[in-house]
Amino acid sequence: MSENKSNTAGPDTAQAQREPDVSEPLLSVKGLTKHFPIYGGFPFKRQVGAVQAVDGVTLDVYPGESLGLVGESGCGKSTTGRLLTRLMEPTSGTITYNGQDISHANRRKLAPIRSEIQMIFQDPYASLNPRQTVGTIISGPMEVNGINPPGGREARVRELLETVGLNPEHYNRFPHEFSGGQRQRIGVARALALNPKIIIADEPVSALDVSIQAQVINLLQELQRELDIAFVFIAHDLAIVRHFSQRIAVMYLGKVVEVADRDSLYNAPRHPYTHALLSAVPNADLDADKTERIRLFGDVPSPIMPPSGCRFRTRCWKAQDKCATEEPPLVQLSGAREGHLTACHFPEAPTTEKTGPDVVLDPALVALEEKNTDKK
Predict the structure, then answer these.
(1) Which of 70, 115, 125, 151 could form a disulfide with 194 if both were Cys (CB 3.0 to 4.6 A apart)?
(2) What region holds the ABC transporter domain (predicted)?
(3) For the chain, which domains are there?
(4) pTM for the structure as a whole
(5) Which residues fall within 8 angstroms of residue 179, CB to CB, at 6 or more apart?
(6) What are phi and psi of 76, to 5 degrees?
(7) pLDDT by residue (tens digit) across 131-181?
(8) What is the rounded CA–CA span in Å between residue 91 and residue 104?
(9) Are 98 and 110 contacting, i.e. CB atoms less than 8 angstroms apart?
C-alpha cells in the first residue's frame, strides 16, 4: 500500500502538497459558519432570514488521529463534515488544510487537495450508483483525477476490494448484489482509492445492523493503523464514538460546546449538555450505583432564530441571566485536563463524574475491544 501511495499521486499533487507535521493540525477550522438563506415575498423574492446550520465552529484534526463529532439530530455535524470536504461553500470562517487556506478556493486550487480529503457517506444504499459496477464506482475517483496507478486501475480496484474484505472477483458486480455492510465497504474502498490523508466519515454505520457495525468499525480502525489516516467520525451513538475516537467534540445547535480527549469527556464532562447526553445512556451493570438521568425539557430551538447568549440556556437547569446576554467562549476551565475545552458560564464541577462503563457497548463492540487489547 505504501508503494502505491507514492506512485499514484499526480505530479501536480506532489508539488502542491508538503508532508504534514505531526505536531501541527492537518486540518484546522476557525469560526466556520454556514447559513442557508430563506427567501420570501411576492413578486420579488428577498432574503427574510437564514438557517444557521453551523455557526462559529473551531476544530483541529491532527495527522493520524480520530476526532469524533457528536450531537443530536439537526445540530449541524453532517453539514460541518461537508464543509470540511468543501462539498459546500462556507458562509464565513477559515478552513486550513496542511497549511493552505482552502475556505473559498476555486476548483483548480482544490484539485490537488481533493485526493487527500475523502468522505464516507451515511447511506450505503443511496451513495452508490445502481447502474455502475463496483469496478467503475471505485475507479471513478482515479479517472476524475487522471491517476493511473502502476499495474492499471483495475488492479488497484481489486487490491482495494481485498483490503476492505471483499472478493476481488466481484469487480463486475452491481451494488444491488451486495448487503448493506458490503456496500459500505465499497464506499470505504472508494474513499481509499486516492490514498487520502484524512477521511470524513458521516455516520458510516448508523444504517447497519449492530453486528455489521462492529465489522465496519474494526475495518476502519485497521485501516487507520496501517495507513495512518486521520478520521473525523460523525455519529450520534455515544458507544460507537467512545470505541473509535481519541478526541471528541460535542455540538449543539450549530456550535461546538465541548472538546476533550475520550477519557476526560466520558469520565468528567464539564458542559451540562454533555452531562445530560451521557446520563441518558442506560447502565449495563444492574448492581452498580444508579446514576440519575438528567431530563432536558422543551424542544431544541429553531436554527432560524436561535436563543441569544448560550444556545443551550433554554433547556439548561443551571441557566442564569448572564447566559442570555453573553455567549460563553470555548476555553479550558480550571481543573480540566490540557485540551479539554468547554463553552459554559456555569460548568459542571471537575468532580462530577460519568464513568466509562455507564456508556453501554454492544456485546459485538465489547468483543472487538477485547480483541484489539489482546493484539496490543
Answers:
(1) 115
(2) 27-278
(3) 2-245 (3.40.50.300), 249-358 (no CATH)
(4) 0.84
(5) 212
(6) 105, 10
(7) 999 999 999 999 998 889 989 999 999 999 999 999 999 999 999 999 999
(8) 9
(9) no
